[in-house]
Write a structure and sequence with these properties.
- 4 copies of one chain form a homotetramer.
- Chain A is globular and about 75 Å long.
- In chain A, helix 4 packs across helix 5.
- The first copy, chain A, has 5 helices and 12 strands.
- Chains in contact: A-B, A-C, A-D, B-C, B-D, C-D.
- At the C-D interface, strand 1, strand 2, helix 1, helix 2 and helix 5 of C face strand 1, helix 1, helix 2, helix 5 and strand 12 of D.
- Strand 1 of chain C pairs antiparallel with strand 12 of chain D.
């Protein structure tokens, strides 16, 4: 006998550009949205009975309808509206997850209706909701940062396969991913995001780093200390190694000037910091 | 007060090409390996004390040493060797996760020492091990498949935003991801992988599909029924929509001949099937 | 005064899946098509006069119409049909370029109506046509190949920045790109492609390689010698370095067993071989 | 008989991070460099004679040596130094091409030694040099821009496959690629790049666009009129379609608020504007 232990279905990569023309200057928001349903859908799997299955195409249509009808000014609020819509009308739906990535656009300097996409960085929002509870988190990812001073790595454990040199002055680059949860539920999401992003960048820049782990903790701690609304924060900081080029073999010095940035292999550090 | 709730560190994307010259014809295996350590490393985070931290660079070196020294003929066996090596020598290490992706190479037909990379498909192996227990799983991902008959979708739930037409004849394409666990621990991993892959492909091809959910379950069920070593299997099958082009507006028929394949948005279906 | 020196416009990435149900078993072809127009379109640039501009959206619609109406069994023949269609009806159009990439699908073994995408490799066709002449070429790209014997590199030029060791036994991997032109115009394109691909793979495998350049020439030469229809062939063969891991520093030998495959930097070699 | 009609070899994707510590605050430049040699290298192809072949590995080493030794403050000047180095010492080398992409980093606000990667946009420099002449060009690519007013497309050619509606108010998004050449050779490359980028963005924003072609020409014209050092400019502007969502079928209006951004298919427009 075989059975389903768990299942989920939905729609991913529903893309949306929303132009807010009701304020001056215009605002543009570009989102990529994923929706996942969990509930009593086992008959679809075992017997091909689709009578409880809302097509994922309808989920997509609904996103566009709600984008127009709801009043929302952040991905988090939009996600809540989407989750509520489906939970209110589908009795077999027990849990819905809404994942939103926002591609940031900014005004071309001095222009009211022209925009520039400001890079790889993505703002994220995630909502897991049932009829009785919901859990919201916000974050950012793909934020590439680098510091050129105040970073070392020494005093580490050595074995017979350890060849890494100790250093008190290296480049420290990472592609930051952060996700945080909130205390209370009267949150100004856009303002919280701006503030947390600023604290993360400043604490990264200012920390006298003894390791990636050390700085990761300092950054999470700074957020918890400076932003009252945050209950905990999860940080992922791969170590994107920049290797000092050995020019001594050519009789040339290289006092931390010329490096090779590498994509792989990559260190990987993650932790969740709580109050 | 802030504290660490959970943390992990390691190395990802350690790439390795192994040439087995001890058999004829030569075999080539290309792997990308990730290693993650969990244990009592909090002093590194909170105080920059690296004395218990084995550098991730050493993890990389160790992978290359073990690739040469261990006797292994599958990613799963290699992963076990890597995990055992670190658990045996590092007392602060409580849990290690080894993730391996294998890029498949096959011989150029008729050639003993020349190879062709056979595509996007990846074989995967994952091991989570502590001193007292380990959990191994195997899988595949990025296997793009398509069926051109025996696929429909009808009888689904409709609301006022549902515009999808019912159909009893559509294209059904997906990018299969599968991950399975084993019964017992005397497994021939290469043979199990070959057999499970074949069952997945055949059951996909032969199923009279009433939905993606319906076929996903049938595929998982077929694996559990036909492969005794498997305890459960998790399948992810996005619906990569191929849209029939409306040529009627130009007075031309299109009896399921001309389609637009799309990458986004995408349906998403997943389930774990157990005995 | 400013002026336009050259211009072109068109549509790229028009994707198409064609299911041939008129033969048994079914065949599937997936194409991505680009169309580029050159002609007397300067008024659109200088004055916003669109009266001679066929929308690129119409180009897309036309591709789908022609996919249904034309009789074609290769990307090359389809490209000719597309080019002829536009040249016949648009008098301001002087030159049209049609670029087609084909994503290869093969039958799941033993199955008539289920398919497997066989990888990164792409078949390519390019047609540049005017009312008086046309130039067709065919090719392949992203074909990843590797040989584990019969490859060396020595006797090269050295200067004070040369650190590369000479070797008579290295791995030789590349991502092959080939594009060829034809003699005559009564070509069986599918058969030519199969034959040329086979000759390229076999000559790569069998060549006693003294350098990438040396093997590239041998491969082009083999095509010209063995395939009468080809007038010339252009080959691009980046050197995807697989670096032997130095295990001697750990007291362990590594007789060409363990390598690190790298994506960057990459050697780059190209040449056009003619009769 | 077969022969080589043309050939070239070199190294691509040589990555470099340069930290300028000689000024306050620190500056970081990240480059990816490609070098291509053309000359009398046919014996390497036809006979495996490597005696005139400088290894591409040496090219890579040389880039790092020159990064340290040369005085350079722009990719263009660095490219000139690289080209000169090789032409000066290799008599068989007739022509060298140096291609540089710069990944832009900016200071984290208020921080002297910490940086933020500002996105997908790349600055480019290309130099083709022989002993007697050289041709330099500069550019940018992957700059994603969007305007939400002053864009229409109407009055175009229609045929029986044209279904596109005329519009006087649409979104206009593109991923700008620009490459320009210079008058004279006493150019301040960094200043020229800043100025041209600003003119491109402002003219895009301010233009009353009747088509992509129309705006592309206006942008090129603005550069030639406002930047005296530029002799000509080549612009590529794919039309990244943002499609208005039809909500009328649900009884809901959509006055240019909700759009679907799409990656494919894509319009494609290019032109070279000259004085």
């Amino acid at each position: 006998m075989t059975a389903i232990q768990s299942d989920a279905y939905g729609k991913t990569r529903v893309r949306l550009t929303y132009v807010d023309r009701d304020r001056e200057p215009h605002q543009v928001r570009e989102l990529s949205i994923g929706i996942l349903f969990e509930g009593d859908f086992s008959a679809a799997y075992t017997h091909g009975d689709n009578s409880r299955i809302l097509p994922t195409d309808t989920m997509k249509n609904t996103v566009y309808v709600l984008a127009r009808q709801l009043s929302w000014d952040s991905a988090e609020v939009f996600a809540q509206g989407i989750a509520k819509h489906f939970l209110d009308r589908l009795q077999d739906l027990l849990k819905v997850t809404v994942d939103i990535e926002e591609i940031p656009w900014q005004h071309i300097p001095g222009q009211n209706a022209a925009f520039l996409q400001s890079g790889n960085e993505r703002r994220t929002a995630k909502l897991r909701a049932s009829r009785s509870a919901f859990e919201a988190s916000s974050g950012l990812k793909d934020l590439q940062i680098l510091k050129t001073s105040d970073s070392g790595f020494s005093g580490f454990l050595r074995d017979e396969y350890t060849t890494l040199a100790e250093t008190d002055d290296r480049l420290f680059g990472t592609v930051l991913q952060a996700q945080w949860r909130y205390l209370g539920d009267n949150i100004s999401f856009n303002e919280a995001h701006r503030q947390i992003r600023r604290v993360l960048l400043e604490s990264f820049a200012r920390h006298a780093s003894l390791s990636v782990q050390h700085t990761l903790f300092a950054m999470g701690q700074a957020v918890l200390e400076q932003v009252g609304d945050v209950s905990n924060i999860h940080l992922v900081m791969p170590n994107k190694h920049c290797l000092l080029v050995d020019l001594a073999r050519f009789g040339i010095d290289n006092p931390n000037r010329v490096f090779v940035p590498t994509d792989e292999p990559s260190g990987y550090i993650e932790a969740r910091i709580v109050r």
